[in-house]
């Protein structure tokens, strides 16, 4: 497989991941993703922005989140995210201790 073909496959897998997290499963809360996987939708948008900046493309945090969410983040959040429960917050604390690189959801 060529480098170009690899890039095309990676891009297709990325688009599928974004669709799955943003459109197919918006019911899964960011904090639950952080607890279980160590990353969330916000992390994904940060990585997207960092990749753009690495290539000399200026992108704000809000622009990156909108690119991933398909709408302004505040709108997506108001439609789909709930306040974390005390149980989720406790589980997140445990996950952070086990994996200190995890950031806030």
What series of H and E elements makes up the topology? HHHHHH
Mean pLDDT: 92
Class computed from helices, strands and strand pairing: mainly alpha
Second rung of CATH, namely the architecture: Orthogonal Bundle
Strand content: under 5%
N-C termini distance: 37 Å
What is the CATH class name? Answer: Mainly Alpha
Explain how this protein is built.
It contains six helices and no strands. With 105 residues, it is an all-alpha fold. It has a single domain, classed as Orthogonal Bundle (SMc04008-like fold). The termini are far apart. The model has no long low-confidence stretch (mean pLDDT 92).
Helix and strand layout, with pairings?
Blueprint: H1 3-24, H2 30-37, H3 41-54, H4 61-69, H5 73-80, H6 86-98
Helix pairs in contact: 2-6, 3-4
Structure summary:
The protein has 105 residues and is mainly alpha-helical. It has helices spanning 3-24, 30-37, 41-54, 61-69, 73-80, 86-98.
Task: Fill in the keyword field for this structure.
DUF1244 domain-containing protein; SMc04008-like_domain; SMc04008-like fold; mainly alpha; SMc04008-like_sf; 105 residues; globular
């Amino acid at each position: 497989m060529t480098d170009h073909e690899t890039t095309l496959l990676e891009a297709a897998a990325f688009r599928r991941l974004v669709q799955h997290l943003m459109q197919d499963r918006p019911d899964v809360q960011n904090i639950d993703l952080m607890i279980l996987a160590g990353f969330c939708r916000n992390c994904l948008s940060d990585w997207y922005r960092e990749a753009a900046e690495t290539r000399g493309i200026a992108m704000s945090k809000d622009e990156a989140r909108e690119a991933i969410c398909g709408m302004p983040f505040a709108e997506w959040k108001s439609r789909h995210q709930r306040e974390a429960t005390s149980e989720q917050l406790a589980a997140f604390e445990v996950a952070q201790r086990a994996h200190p690189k995890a950031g806030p959801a």
